[in-house]
């Protein structure tokens, strides 16, 4: 599995990791098998959140990584309503307990909320000092929010921004990705296949993906993932509780698209500029 430098932290992280949103709805045995298959395939960047299943997914992830913690780049997220200074610390400690670990590799604020960002960032820095997290970042932050966080924290503190990024939602390429590149912040795209609206084979975009997939002996989903990690600052965290799909996701890291193929995909799924950052 290819690895890349995770923003200013310098940590080498797999370009394709594993998301866990809505995994509480999957049969636990299947989800565990899928997560462990992903680890075996090098997808050791595992992302979760206290929100998912009210903590049940963190507990599931804890089971999946048991005995393999040293292999994993582990990320979780605090809900905005918990993101006061003391609330962030308590939320992190509860996540650590559910995950069965003494530290997170990165801890995120799930989206901007009502608690002052100064409090959340102060808590993050307190957690770093205590050794409970190794870095911190943000999720669903547009450029104005990122500028506020940078002003509070200073340079080389925001490790990543996790954002919605799939073929029909390329909006981050307009302003968010350039900002993150300028400030050495990793960009982690979630829901890379959309939310049940992956391009159908008969659609214009679906036909383009299908033709490129056939040329590589791959699948349209693999082509989509390869496109979404084409920039050296991008990472992606597809979620799957199916072993076969996890293996397919991992294989996308080795697929190299030609410039002509990238241009065809960009034309089929055009970038829409000037829009606010989309979220699910």
Q: TL;DR of this structure?
A:
The chain has a single domain, classed as Alpha-Beta Barrel (TIM Barrel), CATH 3.20.20.100. It has ten helices and nine strands.
Helices and strands, with pairings:
Blueprint: E1 3-5, E2 12-14, H1 28-40, E3 45-47, H2 56-65, E4 73-78, H3 85-99, E5 106-109, H4 117-129, E6 136-139, H5 143-153, E7 158-164, H6 176-182, E8 186-190, H7 204-216, H8 220-228, E9 234-236, H9 243-251, H10 259-268
Parallel strand pairs: 3-4, 4-5, 5-6, 6-7, 7-8, 8-9
Antiparallel strand pairs: 1-2
Helix pairs in contact: 1-2, 1-9, 2-3, 3-4, 7-8, 7-10
Description:
This protein has 280 residues and is α/β, with parallel strands linked by helices. The protein has one domain: TIM Barrel, CATH 3.20.20.100. Helix content is 39%, strand content 14%. The protein has helices at residues 28-40, 56-65, 85-99, 117-129, 143-153, 176-182, 204-216, 220-228, 243-251, 259-268; strands at residues 3-5, 12-14, 45-47, 73-78, 106-109, 136-139, 158-164, 186-190, 234-236. It has a seven-stranded parallel sheet. Strand 4, helix 3 and strand 5 (106-109) form a beta-alpha-beta unit. Helix 1 packs parallel to helix 9 and helix 2 crosses helix 3. It is globular and about 55 Å long. The model has no long low-confidence stretch (mean pLDDT 96).
